[in-house]
Amino acid sequence: MTKAKRKRLIYCLITYALVIGAYIILQNMIGAKAISRSLKGLLVPICAWIIMAVSLNLVIGFSGELSLGHAGFMSIGAYSGAIVSGWLLAAFDMQDPTLRLTLAVVMGGIIAGIFGVLIGIPVLRLRGDYLAIVTLAFGEIIRNLVNVLYVGTADGRLHFAFLNKKLPEDVIMLVDGAKGAVKIKPISTFTAGFVLVMITLIIVLNLVNSRAGRAIQATRDNRIAAESMGVSVTKYKMMAFVTAAVLAGMAGALYGLNSSTVVPTQFTFNQSINVLVFVVLGGLGNVLGSVISATFLTVLPEVLREFADFRMLVYAVVLILVMIFTNNPLLRSVFSRAFAPVKSLFRKSKPAKTEMKGGQAQ
Amino acid sequence: MIFLDHLINGLSLGSIYAIIALGYTMVYGIAKMLNFAHGDVIMVGAYIAFCGLQYWGLPPVAAFLLSMLFCTLLGVTIEGFAYRPLRQAPSLAVLITAIGMSYLLQNIALMIWGANPKSFPTTFINGSNIRLGQLNISSATLVTILANVVIMITLTLFTSRTKLGKAMRCVSEDRGAAELMGINVNRTISLTFAIGSALAAIAGVLLCSSYPILQPTTGSMPGIKAFTAAVFGGIGSIPGAMLGGILLGVIEIFGKAYISTELGDAIVFAVLIVVLLVKPAGLLGKPMREKV
Amino acid sequence: MGDTKRKRFTTLFYEEEKPMKKLIALALALVLALTVCSAFAEEPITLKIAHIGPTTGAAALYGLATQHGAEVAVEEINAAGGKYQIKLICEDDEHNVEKVINAYNAALDAGAQMIIGTTTSKPCEAAGAQGYTDRVFFLTPSASSTAVIEDKDNVFQVCFTDPNQGSASAQYIADHKLGTKIAVIYNNADVYSTGIRDTFVKKGAELGLEIVSEETFTDETTDFTVQVGKAQEAGAEIVFLPMYYTPASLILKTAADKNYKPIFFGVDGMDGILSVEGFDTSLAEGVMLLTPFVATSEDEKVKSFVSKYQEKFGETPIQFAADAYDGIYILVAAAEKAGITADTTPEEACDLLIAAMKELQVDGLTGSMTWDESGAVTKTPMAATIVNGVYVFEN
Question: Which of B4, B113, B119 to mutate to test the interface with C (most CBs of C within 10 A)?
Fold first, then answer.
């Protein structure tokens, strides 16, 4: 095994070990009732946000495309999951929560994936900031559409209405327009979240370390060179984008089924930006980093509850300072000299730095 | 008649978007970064003008100029502290810093002025409404549209005739070459931010004169829509920002009036996507040719 | 000699003057008992109540209003002595259905026995459902959608449910013959707004009111020219505004710009429009609204509350604050009835309080209130008109 391969293997193993270890420790704490309600209530959301961060990292870090609408896929997953779960319960009297959750999560992923394909086809034809704005636009469109969507179940069938709430009289509402998904029976569990996180990690880590993964990173590093090498840019960018969409959908279903209601305002542009911050702070192309940063940044606001008024202020200041300190070349060289040996173990797949081309007219 | 009414409202809303979009597009063209904090500078400008009128008893013109001055200084300070150290950094890092700056401005405003919405004095733009038959045009609308035209003419003249303006165009085309030609890039970029922030202050005052509710989150949505408008018109192009902004405003109003009020925003974004698919660099943008 | 002494001794105690001795003994015993009792009575029981509401973010002014209103009540009760001393735990839910669960958990970790909250409807629905599973009692001052109390027994409201406001408004308009052509503008993204609109339209249809125009907007909308224009086009004499005062103030300005002068009818969310800093109150002239609380009322209790609130926080309270003030008093009354002590766990307190609430009647700032097992409150809605920049109560 080459040195590089070994390093990658160690990196993957450390990632899995960390997640499994955390799960075991937390389960024991829950069993021994040694866990606060706050932390216990955060476990499923943390799992969901980890999946979101890792999937977005696939798009931004490995595929090199800035996507600002990732929360849209999460919302599709959440709504699909709520509809499926509610329908299975009402129409088929499926009482088993684990079965319902599994089906809901799978459907959430599939439907989000379908949207991922539909959105990906136009979006991935654009470049850079134009792609970013179009993903933002799609995120907002999804939110607007969901706001006027009405879904109910009656006589075993699903009834859909759009803009006008024209549904049969005896319908049980599952999605009520602006009120969002209503009367959800929460069935998500920490174990389910853990399983989903592991599935996500296995998929993503194996994808990026495979041939397809190298192709994806090639399209990120130099689009033209990749194309001239016969690597189909469209195919591989779509692969990354759709995989991320499916994972986000599953995360959304898990997240949605953790609460009794889901509203469109939970999946705004701000939420997409939140996930983006997780990814950037954890390091582009660094899956373990995304896991850690998503966990840390979800728990941090709760820990800072005492400083309620200053919470967001401190968060903003810290964010700016971290960005400046990790990106300013002068400050960076100071740090990297200090941490060189540790860093070599965690070498992430970094996008190639393009040198500034002087004097070239465009 | 109603059509004309909607058209004028659309032009007014579009003018506000255009002025904001100008700030975005100038900064993007020259500093090559998306300044997400721009929308919040608008909000700060509106608050300063409000304070000037309400607390310090200044006449409208003085409050307006104070607001412009403050925002200019604010913009230059932000650039110096947060964006300049990241000149060499990947654009994503600068984006996140800009987002952090946006949160910072919103929360500082929340701390200083509180969460309660303030009502921007409608007497700021003092003038009666014009009535043409059944049509009612408010004075704020007129001033907004006029301001837009004046700004566009001024900026176009500035960038094409003056030395500073030409320096800005040079830096936007090729920063390395501009530096070699003896242009002080740092100062040019600071000037860009200064102009952009001054425009933000104007936009803030006009926005709140037409829609008099002022909260720390006031600048957020107009900021996103104006950013969309800038991209729509071709980011980096000044006439593009103008065109994009006005079109966006008109499309939004007509979409709400003739299709559906709930889906107004969705229609705007859908039009954007369609246009970008046909013209990937925006309406007036120059398609980037990559040399290998 | 010993016998005589003993006899004299016993005679002293057991024979003559028996009633007098007994009286003294009784008096001594009473004094002893009273001292012991008062010693027990002076030990106030600490009641831990958690306030959950949005104290940061876009809905902060509502969360801060309920928090401040609760604080005024807590201060009053603690100063007056009495059976309970209240410890108020405050948590921020940022008007977010995910964060409210975190706030709820944090409150329970801090020892809360009952919750006054949450301030806004959607988060209350989510937190209430969690509380239903965990058996925690909620008294919400202001979350008014029906979903908040549906399918659960642990959530009670101080405020009217939205449907009541919708049908009460329609009834009022019909009874007072305010006009025949009605336009409705409502926030399609808000549970509060759509809930009221639904029952208004339904009741209006029953009463024969003609709704000529219905337009929607969302949370981010600032431009209302289309919505107001359509109402004007349709010739509406009354415009029903089931929304909060922030978008309402924009609609009033837009209508003034268009020289459109219908009667504007609002609901309790309209309260606060006069206290928006810098607002031109002439725009609100003639606006009618359904509200249980008006800060300029001449009522003694209201005046006392308003002055205390102004002294402590430097601004006039809106009805959210009054609802929370009443809420604290209701909780204390219910706790007293149920016999809650400092050691009562939230789960025990929940069932005790639910039973107590059904038998309670409280006269608060917002009216005389009773509850049924659904959790909804029964009290009389009142309508007020804004005349010369002040609220004037109609009957």
Answer: B119
Q: Which CATH class is domain C45-160+298-379?
A: alpha beta
For chain A, state the CA radius of gyration: 21
Interface chains of chain C (3 or more CB pairs under 8 Å): A, B
pTM of the model: 0.85
Tell me the residue length of chain B.
Answer: 292
Q: Tell me which amino acid residue B30 is.
A: I
ipTM higher than 0.95? Answer: no
Helix (H) / strand (E) element for A69: namely none
> How far is it, in rounded angstroms, from Cα C192 to Cα A348?
49
Contact A327 B100 (CB under 8 A): no
- Residue ranges per structural domain of chain C: 45-160+298-379, 163-291
CB contact under 8 A, C105 and A40: yes
Task: Please indicate if any CB of chain B lies within 8 Å of the CB of A150.
Answer: no
Q: Sign of the C-alpha dihedral, residues C304, C310, C312, C315?
A: positive
CATH fourth-level superfamily of C163-291: Response regulator (3.40.50.2300)
- Residue A357: both structure tokens together: 């081309």
Chain C residues within 8 A of B114 when measuring between CB atoms: 61
Count how many Cα atoms sit within 13 Å of the Cα of residue A316 in the half-sphere of its side chain: 18
Separate counts of helices (H) and strands (E) for chain B: 11, 4
How do the pLDDT tens digits run along chain A, 362 residues long? 788 889 999 999 999 999 999 999 999 999 988 888 889 999 999 999 999 999 999 999 999 899 999 999 999 999 999 999 999 988 888 888 899 999 999 999 999 999 999 999 988 888 777 888 889 999 999 998 998 899 998 888 888 888 877 888 778 888 888 888 888 888 999 999 999 999 999 999 999 999 999 999 999 888 889 989 998 888 999 999 999 999 999 999 999 999 988 988 889 888 998 899 899 888 888 999 999 999 999 998 888 777 766 777 888 888 888 888 887 777 777 767 776 666 666 555 555 555 454 444 44
| Alpha carbons B170 and B193: distance in angstroms, whole number | 16
Element (H, E) at C216: strand C210-217
The DSSP secondary-structure symbol of A1 reads: -
Nearest CA in chain A to B28: A129
Q: Which has the closest alpha carbon to C189: A248, B89, A149? A: A149
Domains assigned to chain A:
3-357 (1.10.3470)
